[in-house]
Amino acid sequence: MTPEFSLIARYFTRPTPRAALGVGDDCALIGVADGHVLAVSTDTLVSGTHFFVDADPVKLGHKGLAVNLSDLAAMGAVPRYVTLALTLPSVDDAWLDAFSRGFFSLADRYNVELIGGDTTRGPLSMTLTVFGEVPLSSALRRDGAKAGDDVWVSGSLGGAALALKHMQSKVALKPNVFERAAERLHSPLPRIELGLALRGIASAAIDISDGLLADLGHICERSKLMAEIEWASVPLSPALLSVGPELRVPCGLAGGDDYELCFTAPAAMRARIDSIAAEVGVPMTRIGVMRQGDVGVVARDEKGELMTASAAGFDHFSS
Amino acid sequence: MTPEFSLIARYFTRPTPRAALGVGDDCALIGVADGHVLAVSTDTLVSGTHFFVDADPVKLGHKGLAVNLSDLAAMGAVPRYVTLALTLPSVDDAWLDAFSRGFFSLADRYNVELIGGDTTRGPLSMTLTVFGEVPLSSALRRDGAKAGDDVWVSGSLGGAALALKHMQSKVALKPNVFERAAERLHSPLPRIELGLALRGIASAAIDISDGLLADLGHICERSKLMAEIEWASVPLSPALLSVGPELRVPCGLAGGDDYELCFTAPAAMRARIDSIAAEVGVPMTRIGVMRQGDVGVVARDEKGELMTASAAGFDHFSS
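Above: the input entities. Below: the structure tokens describing the complete assembly.
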């Protein structure tokens, strides 16, 4: 039995009653219900790029899965399965035990089965591929927004980016402010219940991983429309509101890692969306409207003037 | 448009007519035929562990996909989809262009659709997740071997391990011998057609990625049997046969990376398997038999004596 095999057996093998075959063979075998499709997404987190090398492994196990489940939430899919490819500099039992606890704690919450894995030696990183189930006709795609649709955002934005700036010594936060913001950065909760509730309501949806401007920009590109948002309406995180105003645009519009949902919906759905907000316990804020026009996002300030904020979002290769 | 998005758009977006939705949304959407299941497998290749940092990117694109498709072959599944998570130290257009050519050349050969991806900055590595389709009842699992079944191996073994030893300066091969062996190491061909032909014939199957002893050992563990193999029957690669005998056991029994199939089948299937060998153009060799007994692999030499070769195979954390 090779160490690879025993690592997976020891830390990452749990019963997978839904899968026809789980961890331990060349492949896992999974079926899907009639008329449903599997929604599939893959994301990598690399030490030094997406997290610090000394990051708490419990939170890392949570976050690695959370950011992937967030893509299923943005599709309106029910989480079903995940594969985990973990690259480690060495076998550290305490680290693996903590990582697997963080991972399975979130997996159990959403009844996600780990059906496959690979452990390899190298610089610390992880790639997860998640699988969710959704009726093909109700998937929340990026390309369905219509001119006149409202633009909505769940929860609040900018907390995660603010915490990151503190950890990069670009800003010095008070301990209680940092703690609140860091919770958003390290322990994001995928908006699964919200994504499911938005089936048949939202015309397009995306999760905010790279920043509101960048991610709403993807809806614009795919739907071939302009999004016009009111800066004063954008819901900023309490931590961000408690610090100087100069951080609000960079963290609230261009800052990533919040994993809220941004979606569009016809104006006729406003009352339904307010009800959903109450049902799932997540505030929902209308921040603008989709229009015909140049494809992309424009933001207006309190006076109605166009803002010149960079629409770069989180840039994987320049940040 | 972030650089991540444009990298995927530029190098890794091709039409995906089979998928309900391909690259460019939060998730891809895929369906599966009635009575069929998806076979899913994930594998990571890390620079410095699985390949040299200056490896030819065309071959790397091929190999990354090949080693993953090999898991589908070992399951008897038809390749359908793949996701690619690529971590790169920097954006190198020439490298990406070459890598994507190697990747798509093999993907096209097996009509595999790239349905999702992620590009991140960090030490060079890649994680692929492949999806194949198979009727649940004909999947080639590891746990189906029966006492009395023959043990078979496709092709020849040890060429890849021999090339690796040369590249690690543990042995000095003549240029023509190295060239032949290196082909096996850098450009393995997944035994897809063979895996499909073995549906209903093989009782258990695995691909040889970690070495015959280690991988046949997994069939033993899952099937709770002993495998007894005749060392003299193991088909060794022509390159390995052309060098000194001291390399034959370490490369032929314990050397990985050949990506041949090892499978078990009832003796009544011998003639069928010989016909399949001719049909798919891959030699097939009977090397032993499955027995009741201690779970694991034993090898006998020409005199029928038990050999003491290490059963470690390729050890991801000690090699």
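Note for the figure: Chain A touches chain B through 81 residues (CB under 8 Å).
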